[in-house]
Amino acid sequence: MSLDKILSISGKPGLYELKAQTRSGFVAESLADGKKLSVSIQNNVSILSEIAIYTFAEEVPLREIFKRIQEKENGEKAISHKESKNKLESYFSEILPDYDEDRVYVSDMKKVIQWYNILQAKGITDFEDPEASKSDEEE
To answer: pTM higher than 0.85 for the full model?
Structure first.
């Protein structure tokens, strides 16, 4: 399953898989407990493949951050998102040394680490960009 089908829904904890589209929104399934819920168009929804983290030079896609965490942890679970502010900042600077401290908050770091751990626990560990792999095949 690619990050194109994984959602974060504002006001709802955890991550969700996009299951079906409806006239008034869509149906999503929680990765935590498998429960399905109907989400209206009014909800603030983010697709993980569309999220990026600010650095001083550019915006780094979330999939790239996940790949870096995966490499650092040898495919295992990352630190807890409930660690201290200093520990989270130190960990994040190892993964993304040039992240923009003024625009990336500790709450953002917590989400990224929590999301990685959720995906890793569910066995969703293919963080390759499907567009990049298509262009590699064409060459």
So the answer is: yes
Please give the structure tokens belonging to residue 108. Answer: 């953002």
Which H/E stretch holds residue 16? strand 16-22
pLDDT at residue number 128: 83
- For 25, the domain range is 3-48
Both 39 and 58 in one domain: the answer is no
Q: How far apart are CA 38 and CA 36, in angstroms?
A: 7
Q: In angstroms, rounded to a whole number, what is the distance separating the alpha carbons of residues 134 and 8?
A: 26
Give yes or no: residues 14 and 68 share one domain: no
Q: What is the DSSP string of 53-119?
A: EEBSS-EEEHHHHHHHHHHHTTTS----TTS-HHHHHHHHHHH-TTB-TTTS-HHHHHHHHHHHHHH
Decide: helix, strand or coil at residue 38. Answer: strand
